[in-house]
């Protein structure tokens, strides 16, 4: 690179004005490395070359030409002032020069490279590598310190963090801001803020500094200081282009270009002898880290900005988050509740016994006439017992009577059952014995009671064994021979005390009829239930001459109950999901507000070289953070609910699964991405000029 060596040599000879003992640009030279763009440029191409440039604005139905056929060439190292009346097109020209805006037609070459066909990210790269912007109103980010503001361009250029900070601190030091490095813009005067913005412009090398009315908002002393710094930079080789309407400012430039109504009406050299122009200093500053590490650096910046934004509007963030918290908590709780009831129901239906058919009189469940149908009799049960596909049969009858032991009385279910009943139902004997076929034949007054009945009748003496005691069932004295566990649920389950007597006893002593309430058939293990069902139906129709009974199949019941529970659980969960979607819409809404509030910041970031993806990333991270934190809080809330429910001993059981919790976290992240995408995408599509102009 002969051009570079020449530049260094000339720098050695020239006697740059110094600030604090060091030349600004010399300081930077230490870390100055040529970039690809420098090698791409044609050897003798002027730094800036504009031909036939036109910029039109659409205003309603009219087209306003802000620039009309502008031809302009600016060499490296020049200091140019662009002057003209308000509305003459100065800012428009400046924005096009800085690649913030594109011409409607015409050609713009930077160091020989045509910009017309470049995409938004390539223009961002040009801005990063070649330009530094100084705005009239500084455009610093209020959440960041002076140092943080200066660092930003290097973040997007991919400079390693340590190098970035050293360089930013050194720049601020040279600009006399060493003791203000950690101040925020709000704590700085206008002149100091403008110096921070100069440092920011120089961060990536500052080959071309573009200043739009840089002294416009400053008092005269700060303005003078500002111009001195620009002079100094120019002396060190930086190309400086200043837009101004102040003649005294323009007078300091070597070249003054005057615009009127979008046309250049004069382009003159100043009377003061121009300084020998320095050679072009193409390229940025510092060694960019590897692409991967640079991406991590940009992610960290985006993350930091997202958390700043969240903290800046704490209440708003919290309220938005609340939507997600409630949604996630609802989903997790509902899924847990669904799982809890499913397991409860499963436990219940397992107590229905294995593979049984239950024959009832009547046409179907709830047939009001079934009580009058008396055709289902013990002989049917005996006939069924003969069938090869039947493992066991028990007839049942039932009634309610009062139970009495000494002075203790309770109402109870009196079940008249066959000796195989406990076998068929799978009921467990806890104490004593069960009655046998002989008890049925004898119409024995032997009674088996369940735990509930024991608790009710022997409450006075809980430790005592009830076996051998005599109780009154209705007014029939019966001897307790066994204690069984209470029926766990399903059909015939009851919270009432239940006692079991031989069905013959119940028929003879209580009902005075031979009709049965039901016959329960346990199907042989090797017979499919539906075959047995068909066979039992056929047999009973044959015996009765008509179908005056119906058969419940526990398998079907099990399936129906399971299905119903699952449908219910899904229904509840889908309502919870709706609340989650509502939360997501809240996030989207607030993100749209957040983006519109920070349009200006987005513009500044784009001006210093942020890619569209950088902007997208920043807002997407914000949305995901809100949702993720909301999700974690939601899970905590759901677990809290579970603990409270457990303490209250409600009939609900909440069973949390790790899967549902992981799903909730994934879900909340997805909501952030899905509902944050639109606002973030909108932000990334903003036109930098439009964004910068917005207040
Ligand atoms: P200056 O900076 O010299 O005051 P500008 O470059 O801002 O002038 O504007 C030049 C002309 O273009 C003006 O007539 C202005 O009204 C018009 N103009 C600038 N920006 C827009 C825009 N975004 N939409 C429509 N017209 C615009
Ligand atoms: Mg202007």
From TrEMBL:
Gene Ontology BP, a term: response to antibiotic
Membrane topology: Multi-pass membrane protein
Primary subcellular site in the record, as a coarse category: membrane
PROSITE patterns: ABC_TRANSPORTER_1 (PS00211), ABC_TRANSPORTER_2 (PS50893)
GO function terms (MF aspect): ATP binding; ATP hydrolysis activity; transmembrane transporter activity
Region (Disordered): 269-288
Top-level taxon in the UniProt lineage: Bacteria
Protein name according to UniProt: Pyoverdine export ATP-binding/permease protein PvdT
